[in-house]
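Thread title: Can someone regenerate the structure for this chain?

I was given the following input by a collaborator and told the matching structure tokens would be attached. They weren't. Posting the sequence so someone can regenerate them.
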Amino acid sequence: MNTELVEALDILEREKEISRETLFEAIESSLLIACRNNFGKADNIHITMDRETCDYEVYAEKTVVETVEDKSLEISLEDAKKDNPEAEIGDTVKINIDSKEFGRIATQNAKNAILQKIREEERNSVYDRFSGLTRDVVTGIVQRVNGRNISINLGKADAILTESEQVRGEILRPTDRVKVYILDVRNTPKGPRISVSRTHPELVKKLFEAEVAEVRDGTVEIRSISREAGSRTKIAVYSNDPDVDAVGACVGMNGNRVNAVVSELGGEKIDIVNWDDNPALFIENALSPSQVISVIVDPDEKTAKVVVPDFQLSLAIGKEGQNARLAARLTGYKIDIKSETQAKDAPGFRMEDYLTDEYDDGEYEGEYEEEYTEGGESFESGETAVEENMEETAQDEAAVEEDVEETAQDEATDGEVAEEE
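Best answer:
Regenerated them for you:
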């Protein structure tokens, strides 16, 4: 039993994750290369190797002839009888070859062949491992900064975090542990090239899957994500179990679940809203934390007109339009937002803009319901609020006029009294 070889193969199999059979094939191949370098050809050379004991045998098959013309393929009868007394002219005999007698060059070539095979198999092993992790999240350690790119060690391989996939303003230093999203794995002559990202929206989804058991088992689904890395993310969630609150499950007790994700993302704000089949309600949820009075949607054009309270307009739009922009990406609708005051004079934001003469005459044929039923509920409730606000405003104006008239009368009376005195 070749104990040293057995131990060496065990170590390689464990550390390099290379199968023993592959290592056996590499050794056999290297011995053939050594024989070819030593004898000039190896067509008639065979190698047998015991997979358990690692004992191996190298032999050449030669034809017994009276006159030897090619020593690598033929053997004289006299020499053949030394190994096999029963050998006859024309027979094929096996001649053992002692690999220890190979020259230095042949031995070095065999060694290089084994090492190259091990490196190739190691690269293939790493590639197979990480290609299976594409579109998944792994934890790595920042290795070094190469110009504008960052090298991240993933254990068996290094990944490249390019400048375009880095979060703006995030500073990563060597030895920092970070979670990254694997974008792509390519096999190259120099080994696997792994591209990772810290800005991809799917990174947020995978982090929630790791933190929230309900998301992991499918009870809660993350239906849509819109993200501006480093600043803010909106996610729309839906519960397949009526007894499970989708938003509450993602937030966690005292916000511990969402806070864990926020911490991993360097303090990035995360808005979690309920997904809804009704696009009007979904858009209303997506504009959170702003209040919404009414939503009118056009499913065919994928547009929506939204009315919000005057004091909520800036909140609905967000800083530099971020809240409205993320809501539009989340819902897939182009959203036009106006305040109550602006909506009164804006075409398309009033109920009468969608009523024809036949509706005004009291005739209703269902066209309005068919076109706007998805956003009708929100629109009607919002329009009622607008009408109430308009009535209140008119009442206030009338009250102000009465106050003005009473003041004028009081001043006139005071003037008459002053003249009499």
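The domain at 278-406 is CATH 3.30.300.20 (GMP Synthetase; Chain A, domain 3).
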